[in-house]
């Protein structure tokens, strides 16, 4: 039976992270109105230039198969009692995507405001990131903070550039294999083999 992918992978996490951040971190425009801080996806194959300050960038450092979360058992997807069949499929393959979240600003005040808003909105070291898998189904992925806030300020054309970063592990899974039909036991008949 054909199956649409139900995987959660880089694009789904990137899209969800952008929305999640922009609901939590704001700056003010010239009229004092709150505006979401821009979020940029850094790509390793392109020169990284920041066009707007302040901003936040997301960068995937690496990923790994998370064998601790893997269950090799098959999963029952559906049951049909009338035809006495099940649809089963292998368990999804779990991965962890390691993301670096970078805060960029030209002023210490803006940097302090962004990091304060972000960290205050997430009091625990982990949170659930609402996202949509490749089939369009709403889900969530566990996100775990791996490092404390680090600073790495830079000089750019004789001006100070404020830079802080956090590292997160995001739980995702590859769920691509179609289901297969299997026979199902629907009735158990107990026989008494004792003769009188």
Describe the protein's architecture and organization.
- The structure is a single chain.
- With 196 residues, this protein is mainly β.
- The chain has a single domain, classed as STM4215-like (2-Layer Sandwich).
- Helix content is 14%, strand content 44%.
- It is built from two helices and 13 strands; from the N terminus they run H-E-E-E-E-E-E-E-H-E-E-E-E-E-E.
- The protein has helices spanning 10-22, 108-121; strands spanning 26-28, 34-36, 39-41, 55-65, 74-80, 85-90, 93-105, 126-132, 138-145, 150-151, 154-156, 159-174, 180-183.
- The strands form three sheets. Strands 3, 4, 7, 8, 9, 10, 11 and 12 form an eight-stranded mixed beta sheet that branches. The protein has a three-stranded antiparallel beta sheet with strand order 5-6-13, with no helix packed on it.
- It is elongated and about 100 Å long.
- The relative contact order is 0.24.
Main attributes of the structure:
single chain; 196 residues; mainly beta; eight-stranded mixed β-sheet; STM4215-like; three-stranded antiparallel β-sheet
Described by strand count, sense and barrel closure, the largest sheet is: 8 strands, mixed
For this structure, what is the CATH class? Alpha Beta
Radius of gyration: 24 Å
How many independent structural domains?
Answer: 1
What's the average pLDDT?
88
Gross morphology is elongated
Relative strand content: 35-45%
Low-confidence residue ranges: none
CATH architectural arrangement: 2-Layer Sandwich
Series of secondary-structure elements, N-terminal to C-terminal: HEEEEEEEHEEEEEE
- What share of the residues lie within helices? 10-25%
CATH topology: STM4215-like
DSSP E strands, number: 13
CATH superfamily: Myoviridae tail sheath stabiliser
Helix and strand content put the structural class at mainly beta
Number of helices: 2
């Amino acid at each position: 039976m054909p199956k649409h992918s139900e995987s959660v992978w880089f694009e789904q996490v990137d899209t969800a992270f952008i929305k999640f951040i922009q609901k939590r971190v704001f700056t003010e425009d010239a009229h004092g109105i709150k505006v979401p801080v821009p979020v940029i996806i850094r790509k390793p194959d392109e020169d990284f230039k920041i066009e707007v300050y302040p901003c936040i960038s997301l960068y995937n450092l690496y990923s790994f198969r998370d064998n601790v979360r893997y269950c090799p058992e098959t999963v029952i997807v559906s049951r049909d009692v009338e035809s006495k069949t099940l649809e089963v499929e292998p368990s999804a393959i779990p991965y962890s995507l390691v993301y670096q979240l970078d805060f960029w600003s030209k002023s210490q005040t803006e940097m302090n405001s962004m990091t304060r808003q972000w960290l205050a909105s997430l009091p625990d070291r982990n949170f659930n990131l609402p996202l949509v898998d490749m089939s369009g189904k709403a889900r969530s992925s566990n996100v775990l903070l791996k490092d404390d806030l680090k600073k790495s300020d830079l000089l750019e054309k004789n001006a100070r550039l404020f830079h802080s970063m956090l590292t997160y592990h995001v739980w995702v899974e590859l769920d691509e294999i179609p289901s297969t039909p299997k026979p199902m036991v629907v009735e158990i008949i107990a026989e008494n083999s004792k003769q009188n």
